[in-house]
Automatic annotation (TrEMBL):
Database matches in PANTHER family: CHROMATE REDUCTASE, NAD(P)H-DEPENDENT FMN REDUCTASE LOT6
Protein name as catalogued: NAD(P)H-dependent oxidoreductase
Gene Ontology molecular functions: FMN binding; oxidoreductase activity
GO CC term (a single one): cytosol
Pfam families, A to Z: FMN_red
Record lineage: Bacteria, Pseudomonadati, Bacteroidota, Sphingobacteriia, Sphingobacteriales
Domain (NADPH-dependent FMN reductase-like): residue spans on this chain: 4-144
Amino acid sequence: MKNISIISASVRNGRNSHRVALYFKNYLEENKLANVNIIDLKEYDFPIFEERLRFISDPTAAMLSFANEVTTADGIIVVTPEYNGGYPASLKNAIDLLYAEWKRKPIGIATVSAGAFAGTQVITSLQFSLWKIGALVIPAMFPVATIEKTFDENGKPSDVEGTDKRAKSFIGELIWWIEAKQKMEM
């Protein structure tokens, strides 16, 4: 079975994007598609980026745990809110902490906003950052508009059938890239 980690990028109080991370965890487990772990950046409490992990003389246990989670995951789903047209500093901080760990890692992006544009303004800048370090960003996206109306606090969507249909396509694309990468490594 595949190992998929979900990065919940917001560290804000009252954050809503975490609802989508919970949804994906439930969806993947209920459909027996993967072993799932949520990497909640709010729990890691990283210091502001000063250096890549490999150059830090005394990395924290959280840094080493994060690096291990990214390394051992077959694929990653990044769930990020859009803040003023960009993704949160907490996510940029976490991405920049690592380098080799991202190389050829299949990554799906789910964007979230309170408004109607579903966080789509963040996609290009996040893709570019991940591409620059060699990640395999899948072409499928999972934008979520009006988060407070579309998902409850436990990750249950208001339109289960429609959301599951979109998730099936998105997750299918991620799994395809995971399997393609595994075949290339043989």
